[in-house]
Amino acid sequence: MAHEIKVPRLGWTMEEGTFLEWLKRDGDPVKPGEPLFILETDKATQEVEAVEGGLLRISPSGPKAGDTVAVGAVLGWLLAPGEAPPVKPPAEKAGEPPRRPEGAAVEEREPLRALPAAGAQLPAISPRAARRAAELGIDWTRLQGTGRGGRIRERDILAAGAAAPLSGTRKAIAERMVRSAQSTVPVTLAAHVDATNLVRRREELKASWSAGRAPSRHDHIVKLAARALKDHPALNARWSGEGLAPSKEIHIGIAVDTARGLLVPVIRDVPELGLQELAERSGGLIERARAGKLTAWEMQGGTFTVTSLGGLGIDVFTPVINHPEVAILGVGRIQGQAAVLGGAVKPREMMWLSLTFDHRAVDGAPAARFLDTLRRLIEAPEEILKEVLS
Amino acid sequence: MARREITFMKATLEALSEEMAKNPAIFVLGEGVGKRGGNFGTTTGLYDLYGPERLCDTPICERGFIGLCAGAAMTGTRPVVDFMFSDFILDAVGEIANQIAKIQYMSNGRLKMPVLLRGSIGIGHSSATHHSGSYYSMYAHFPGLRVAVPSTPYDAKGLLKRALNCDDPVLFLEHKSLLAAKGPVPEEEYQIEFGKASVKREGGEVTVVAIALMVQHALKAADRLASEGVSVEILDPRTVSPLDTEAILKSVRKTGRLLIVDESFAPCGIGAEIAARIAADGFDDLDAPIRRLNGLHAPTPYSPPLEAAVIPNPETIAAEIRRLLEE
Questions:
Q1: Domain match, A191 and A74 both
Q2: Less CB within 10 Å around the terminal CB: N or C of chain A?
């Protein structure tokens, strides 16, 4: 039910005040007791708290900072998710103080009044999308849907979530990070790896590449990680309501940094994909992630995640497990370094790998064995590398 | 061991023959089931194995022999009534709906009714409107009947075996266009429980519930769509009564979209029942309206081009899935 937000009477004699600023943004969820806006009277400047909760909708005809506002003027509404603001202002015109009987005691604060739901034209929304909007705290009433006749679908909510970081993607990320932190026992292992062969192989591939996006270093590592997971299935699993479920399939999530925040689209059945196919898939997913066009399906079902901060000059870090998965691989910078090889100091392309695993699901030794297998794969002679990366 | 592949018909024949060998109370009754071996080969070779007493040819009198079988079942035998075409079962519906489906209830469970009623369903052989019906929706309407509509040789054998080991009356409906289809069937003994759907293909973007031949068509449609990057999950309920609602809900929870492909008529059909159940219990999971794709609500034509035009095929199913994804 829509609750009006009115200019309160802050003193016995107050008839008007100066509106200074909103403390929440249009569309923000507001809880009762949270500061909503700042009002200045001749006596004081005061933060006005919300009496009710809901999503804030600021009235388009409301005051700008510094405007004089009359007691009782409607500044906006607090709405239930999916609810439309009333089309018309209430019976008393905005800006006009409510009448009160002569001599009657005036309340300190005008109670917020509920309005009957107005018959505004709302866009159609699927039940699934409405549920998702409620979960993410997204106000969908002004979205343009991509379904038939403009119906809002789940993907539209996810796209809107990506477009409004604070209320959407940011909130979703925050919830997922907290869930991971609260429900996993993360341990991070780091390994120093000689990636010279991999770098060389990739450069050759890139030079001979004719059309489309050549497989990136990240694609190579995703492919090799999938190969290593085959030998270490304990790290390729998901927690479910019933407990730990190892997955037959290897679906690898790739962490993508977008303008709206971190998104993790999933490359399905990685072992079944050739390197070129994998590069096409990951290229498409990254492009759609950056454009906010990933579907829900494309962001679900991962069994392992690979994240890379190497491009930003990071060597070692402690990636956060993408719960309910049980492990995540962090890929560090590849850098030319002096390494001892066969008793001689040689320039090599070195890289750190950081593996965070959930100690509830896997012990340290098997996790270390997985990382060692991956290290060996990356360091494998070119002929072997070529075969694994076909 | 190499996987053995046999036809749908061979799978059901095996099931029937194996059970008849084990259980002398099973007998088959119908038109041409004896020396002729059944119109569709459903009893091929059984006459020589089990003799005329257990493979009884009848005159054309469905209402009469269904009554005989109901009585026989009450005395402890297991009649298998082979109607050739499910269209002819209609002539026996009075006994089926009024006696066979009710007698266990009316006798407080003292009388059992282990009758197996089988007949072919489906359009596609220029058999015209008296030999092309499917009617499973109608039987699913009555409490007390179990209705199996398998789509693979494996399912056919497992469900027929189950039917011959249960005390309830079972309608076992076989699609004509599936009878020659081959598929893997293990040599080992197995049964398939009623009311357990089978995921024929896993996918993530849309759930297709398909029945009998439509399962095979939907699989072809899904193959085509996979090359367009569309991920389709296909569910075969295998029995329309009992219906595995939970499996469909589970799939829709994942995909958010449901298409029901059913060759039989849409009005008051099993698709409507599935749609109603999912709308009631899976409403919040739906990202699009539930859609149905059915055969046309019309008597089946004889002309092959017209016949092909009235039922869904892989192209029309793929088109309907694309439309649903646009919703």
A1: no
A2: C
